[in-house]
Write the structure tokens for this entry.
Amino acid sequence: MKHFSFIFIVIFALEIVPQDGEIRNYYENKVLKEILNYSNSQLSGECYYYTKDGILSERKEFKNNILDGLSVSFYSSGVLKEKYRWAKGILQGNYSRYYESGILSEIGNYENGLPDGEMKTLFESGKLRSKINLVLGKREGVNYRYYENGNVEAESNFINDVQQGTTKWFYEDGTLKGVYNYNSGHLDGEIKEFYASGELEVIKIFEVGKRQGLFTYFYKNGKISKTENYINSWKEGKVRTYYENGVLWTEHNYVSDKIEGEARIYRDDSSLWYLEEFQKGTIIRSKEFDKNGNMIKEQKF
């Protein structure tokens, strides 16, 4: 009984004695797992963490058990991956991230734990990839995305982290690709998209993020290739396609986004080619005509 009491007293004494200095812990294979520094039983100073292969994976600074100072992480190859700074457990100040090649991939700043100020990402070549303005974690103002050749890929505006106003996309050679209008984060109003050669390709109409109204598509020669109407993002009414010479090609009627009723297909000389009938998007009858208007084939499905 006295022996048991002695062991209990020793263990209890060890538990209440403040832990100070360096502590090293190991994996089962005896490879170093971590080096921890304590002051009054609390993590303080630099601490190191290793993989089972013995490669340094993280280095952190603590004060009174709270992250405070520089934190660094590494790839399994040992190459620097990230650098962050902490102040009393809160991310604060500049940070940086790196490709496994060691090339810088991202830089920015934290303010009271939130990304703040200008954030930049880079291609592995070192060329600028994106530039984002942040105010306490929220996008604000004009932001840019770039091609590796330095030309702007996209230009967008944000207010309180919500996309607002005009957004422009560009082809890699700098030619305008599309102009989009946003209202409270939703596509709204007229949208224009262009061919890589610069000609207008399509005009679309949106209302609070939904397709609404007439969509008009164009050939490069400026003639209309297709028109279709939308209500609440569903096709409704006539959808017409045209040959490049402007002659009507097809005419279908839509109800709740499905072809309904009579559909017509014309040759490029305007003669009727096919007359078809649909029910809820499924063809049920088809008639084919020659150029003189004589029916030459009929099918039921």
